[in-house]
Every structure is written in C-alpha cells, then in structure tokens.
Amino acid sequence: MINLYATILSIVLAAGGLDVHSPQLEAAARTDAVRQVMDQVYACRSIDGSTLSDAIVSPSVDLRLRQLIRNRCKVTDLNLTPPGPADGLSDALHQDRRAFSLMVQLATADLPSDVRESKDDLAIKKILNRLEHRSFVTLGVSDPRLDPAKPQPLGWETVTSNGTAMAVDIARDDALRQLTAACDRAFAGDLASSAYRTHIASIRTAIESSSPQLHDEQVCTVTVPYQIKDSLFNAVGYGVPPWSQVWRASGCIDRAPPSWASQTLVATGRGGIGGSKPSDAESVVARSAAKANALLKLATRVDELPLPQQGSTTMGEWLRA
What we know:
Elements (H helix, E strand, L loop, with lengths): L1 H13 L8 H20 L16 H14 L1 E4 L13 H4 L6 E7 L11 H11 L5 E7 L19 H26 L7 H16 L3 E2 L5 E9 L2 E9 L40 H24 L11 H6 L1
Antiparallel strand pairs: 1-2, 2-3, 4-5, 5-6
Helix pairs in contact: 3-5, 6-7
C-alpha cells in the first residue's frame, strides 16, 4: 500500500497546471519522467542478483540502452486540477504556475523488439534476456523556473548550464585519455622525444576544436579521429552531467502518509466446489473463483480508503472522477 499511496499522492499533488502550454515545458516533463524510468530499469536485478547497471560493459552499450528505453517510453498527459499552496508543494514549484506534468510508461518486454544485430545491441540482448519482464510508470514534472523563451537541447531541459558544460568537459577528458594512451603505446620507450610532445599538444588542440554531440539521453559524446604514425585512431569520449546539476521533481512534496499507508489488507475469497471429491479441473476452477473473489474484496476496501487533504473523497471516488 505504501507504493500505491506514493504513486497516487504524487499524481494528486504534483500534476497539473499550465497557464500556457509550452512544448519546451512538456519536453522537460518527459525528460524528467524518462530519467526516472531509466533509474528503475538500471536498478532491476537479474536472476543472479546483480543489477542491470552491473552488466553494462562499455559506455557505448550504456548509451544504446538509454536510447532504447527513451524510444520505447509511452507518454500519457495528465489533466488534473492545478495544485495550490495548501497542497504541500515546495516554494520552488509555486514561484511560477507554468509547471507541466505527464506520465510515462515502459514495459521491458518491448525493448528486445528494437534490438538490432550490432555488437552493442547483441550485448544488450544478453542483458535483457536475464531480466524478468517488468512494467514501469513514472510521473515527470517540468522545472517551473524553466524559461520557454530559451530552448534547451532535447533531453537536456532538466540540466543546468553548468551541468551541460561539465558533461562536455568529461567527454573531452575521456577522449584525451584514450588518445594519450594510444600515443603512449606508439611511443613506448621514447616518451621524452619531441615527436611525442608534439603529438600530445596536437591531440589537445584536436579535442578542444571538436564539436560535442548532446544525445537526448543526457549523454555527451566527443568524436576525435587522429593519426599517430601509421595508425588512425577514432576516440569517442563519453560524459554525463553530475546528478547535482540535474533538476528533479522528486523530494518537492513534503506530506505525511495517512494512517492506512502502513497497513496490510487481507481478504478471504471463496470458490464453490460440488461434491465431496472434486476432480482436478473442478479444483482449479474453484481456486480461480476464490482468488477473483478475494481480489474483488480487496478492490472494494481500497476504494473506501480516504485521501488526505481531500475532504471526504475516497480513493475510488477520485479514480473514477
């Protein structure tokens, strides 16, 4: 019941209210929701107890998996009454009424259908085969301080300008590390030569002049082709913004859970059996009937749960409204 309460309360309190609909705000809300989905998918555990993130073998596999997840996320807009100050939202969400929210859904069973025959995709396929099929629903909320007049790159709406610059720097440092290592191998035993120092200086210049690519999945890549002696190296640096530079709606709601949040609901279902010695088929039917009866009773009790700060409104009344 705690998870159910958290989900519904988030929708009741956080969803709502654009005075002016903006594609930029909607994109920011989707980015926030997709980020939450990615966090949950990466935290999934396989049959051996390891998480999906533990199985990521390279940055390119990580980026490709993020692309698959983002492409498969289905968006459902929420049209609820805009929350007011009494609803418990933080001041950050109330200094501007342009907040926009939407829901995103993902079923991991849909991901393999987009997997191709590339090396990275085959690695992802092995990872997904170890996971049980799961479905996720998250609520994304745009930062009310986001200025629609200043468009951000798609997928980077929730990242600060400092965070974007830091991601670019991280990607360039990664490319520099790769090319420096290649140069060290090419000049092994001769690292004090002028040719080696010239290459290192040229590598730094090539990296600084390269154009970073900001992917929708909040991953920055810097691709730098560079020739050392007779070999051509193609370094691809990867960088992501630090968590401290990514805006999140989570944590903005400060509400105490209702008394029933920690309760466990129990219902007993009944299924009829004819005769004193029922057949196997009759037993199966009876068990199914008993389960359906118990679920119906549980649904009735959930419908009757009162919602905090909603007067006499019950869960069922709000869901059917």
